[in-house]
């Protein structure tokens, strides 16, 4: 039971990275913009957050730096694809490649750096409950913030006027423009907010999840987060559920190794990516279902 509790706790922690990044990409895509640069944004945010944490010793400052780095990269991407009407797919891939290279260059001097002692968070009283306490109530606050953000985004999209406008921009920007809404500014704001959340996820990886800097440490999580939005059919609650599913698959490899299961480590390392491919293949078998749920103007440029 203790081993199972640790597996659940590790699943929630690993899923938090994907959930935060997935929610950011969901905001982008609900506005009709497809950003393939999540991997690069998360890497740049990871080194920005880690460098800030090493310099200032403050996790809050590190998270702010990560969000700022992600938002800045998303702003450049947004100006290119929204105002200059560049191809969203090519621009996103260029952003990702730039982020991978820039983070590797900027992070050279931080490779051997270490953060100070990490605080151990737990909810008093609840953390002492057998099994449930170690599994659910001894996490970094960001784990719980991810759940709160999911609920808040679901309310925003489906219960608020601003959320309705955002969805309208993603469905039919021409109609939204005809009603007087500034479509391009709304899309740019959505892209910047989404980039900030991707940046927060990247900073969480380097400051909390694995408190160190290693080149390429995001290790495909940005691409998994992109696949997660399709898996979740662009719904916040399903983003969270899918993030925990993929997080569980990621942590399962370490759990099996700890239990002495004789499986080559290379096969276990492939599990998260294999699960991503399998899920996308299963979803793509029903294109009508995807078409019904996907924002109608996703990836399509708009010129007023």
UniProtKB/TrEMBL annotation:
The chain crosses the membrane at residues 6-26, 33-54, 60-82, 89-110, 141-158, 188-207, 213-232, 239-255, 267-284. InterPro entries: ABC_transp_permease. It is a multi-pass membrane protein. It holds the Pfam family BPD_transp_2. Its main location: membrane. It comes from the Bacteria. Keywords: Cell membrane, Membrane, Transmembrane, Transmembrane helix. It is found in: Cell membrane. PANTHER family: ABC TRANSPORTER PERMEASE PROTEIN, SUGAR ABC TRANSPORTER INTEGRAL MEMBRANE PROTEIN-RELATED. This is ABC transporter permease. It comes from Pseudaquabacterium terrae.
């Amino acid at each position: 039971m203790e081993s199972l509790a640790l597996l659940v706790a590790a699943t929630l922690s690993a899923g938090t990275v994907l959930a935060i990044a997935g929610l950011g990409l969901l905001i982008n895509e609900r506005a009709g913009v497809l950003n393939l640069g999540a991997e690069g944004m998360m890497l740049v945010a990871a080194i920005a957050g880690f460098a800030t944490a090493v310099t200032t010793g403050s996790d809050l400052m590190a998270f702010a730096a990560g969000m700022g780095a992600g938002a800045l990269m998303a702003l450049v991407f947004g100006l290119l694809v929204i105002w200059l009407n560049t191809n969203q797919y090519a621009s996103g891939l260029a952003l990702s490649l730039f982020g991978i290279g820039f983070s590797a260059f900027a992070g050279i001097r931080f490779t051997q750096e270490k953060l100070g002692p990490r605080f151990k968070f737990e909810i008093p009283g609840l953390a002492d409950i057998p099994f449930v306490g170690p599994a659910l109530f001894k996490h970094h606050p960001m784990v719980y913030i991810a759940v709160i953000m999911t609920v808040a985004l679901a309310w925003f999209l489906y219960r608020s006027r601003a959320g309705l406008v955002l969805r309208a921009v993603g469905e039919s920007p021409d109609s939204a423009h005809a009603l007087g809404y500034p479509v391009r500014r709304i899309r740019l704001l959505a892209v910047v907010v989404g980039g900030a959340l991707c940046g927060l996820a990247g900073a969480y990886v380097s400051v909390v999840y694995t408190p160190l800097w290693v080149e390429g440490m995001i290790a495909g999580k940005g691409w998994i987060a992109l696949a997660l939005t399709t898996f979740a059919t662009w719904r916040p609650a399903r983003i969270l559920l899918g993030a925990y599913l993929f997080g569980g698959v990621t942590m399962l490899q370490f759990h099996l190794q700890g239990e002495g299961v004789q499986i080559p480590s290379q096969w276990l390392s492939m599990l998260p990516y294999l699960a991503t491919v399998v899920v996308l293949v299963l979803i793509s078998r029903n294109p009508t279902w995807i078409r019904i749920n996907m924002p109608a103007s996703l990836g399509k440029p708009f010129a007023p």
